[in-house]
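Quick question, first post here. What does this chain look like in 3D?
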Amino acid sequence: MAKQVRITLPKLSEDFETGTFVAWHKKVGDRVEQGEIVAEIMTDKVNLEIESSASGTVQALLVQEEDSVRVGQELAILEC
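> Answer (accepted):
Ran it through. Tokens below.
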């Protein structure tokens, strides 16, 4: 039985709370490996690359370019 894994925006520093979603590196149906870069987030200081926390197939992308995202927010769903 397949399980779902949710990719979320991690807390990367004490003062990091929100960012702006920049781009997806994958689309629905793509295979992704654990540790692979799947998205980019822009903060007021730096652009961050978001890695997949598991290997699987992208089932849903939950944010779009220019969306404001917060720490802990779900960005994508993988089926593993």
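The chain has no helices and eight strands.
The chain has a mean pLDDT of 93.
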